[in-house]
Specification:
This is Methyltransferase domain-containing protein. This protein has 249 residues and is α/β, with parallel strands linked by helices. Helices cover 26% and strands 29% of the residues. The strands form 2 sheets. Strands 3, 4, 5, 6, 7, 8, 9, 10 and 11 form a 9-stranded mixed β-sheet that branches.
Length: 249
């Protein structure tokens, strides 16, 4: 177990979620908060958070949606330990569980076809196409390992119930790969939400939702502008990041 002296204390959703994270190395930012806001789960649904890390997205979703049950899957033992302790810290360990395991060889507790929703924030950079950070936390969070983007999507498809929904946050410049992976896994009815850093700037991140077995045409929404001209979060972004407003596609 990581010592408390090695952990930093952060808060999300205006203090509604408290999070211990590594003092040095990778720390969750706004992407998992936006992912949770975009995952339209309901009470009684089971949601799988793939690559849960320290549990940021899982805990934000559980805080937003009373009655939802979230299972986090995390490959790194130290990150999984953080996530379990964070669930207890927030009084959510009854609804947020964490399994240690690899999506390429998932633990037997994960039964295919049993989740209403899968959400994930995969590493943004391709293996071999970027310098691997020396910090192992950052390396695992930012650069793909043995599992590539298509592996993540295939795993999500396997875990979802028929007509279940996948939500993901990723880099906008990898949309072509994402579309190919979704097509290969027979996940369709795609909705894309560009995340604009400021009005008039190109999107660097996207949120997407897609349905297992879905066949409706893909659509783009107007997206979300994160920052105003002064660099502060815009009004809609503040309502999502601080006031727990859902991000509706």
């Amino acid at each position: 177990m990581t010592a408390e002296s090695d952990a930093a204390f952060d808060t999300l959703l205006d203090g509604r979620v408290r999070l211990h994270q590594p003092q040095a190395g990778y720390r969750a930012a706004i992407d998992p908060v936006l992912l949770a806001a975009f995952t339209a789960a309901g009470a009684g649904e089971r949601v799988l958070d793939v690559g849960t890390g320290t549990g940021a997205a899982a805990l934000c979703l559980a805080a937003r949606v009373p009655g939802v049950v979230v299972v986090g899957l995390e490959k790194r033992a130290d990150a999984a330990d953080f996530a379990r302790r964070n669930a207890a810290l927030n009084g959510l360990d009854g609804r947020v569980g964490v399994l240690e395991g690899d999506l390429l060889a998932p633990p037997p507790e994960l039964v295919p076809g049993t989740f209403d929703r899968v959400m994930m924030n995969p590493p943004y950079l391709r293996a071999g196409a970027a310098s691997v950070p020396p910090d192992p936390w950052k390396a695992a969070a930012n650069v793909e390992g043995e599992a590539g983007l298509a592996d993540w999507v295939r795993f999500a498809a396997a875990m979802l119930k028929p007509r279940g929904t996948l939500t993901m946050v990723h880099r906008a410049d990898r949309v072509d790969e994402i579309l190919a992976a979704l097509h290969g896994a027979r996940i369709g009815s795609l909705t894309l939400v560009p995340l604009w850093p400021k009005a008039g700037e190109e999107a660097r991140r996207i949120l997407l939702a897609a349905q297992k077995g879905g066949r409706s045409p893909a659509r783009f929404t107007a997206g979300l502008v994160l920052h105003g001209p002064d660099g502060a979060y815009g009004a809609q972004a503040q309502r999502i990041l601080r006031d727990m407003e859902p991000l509706i596609a």
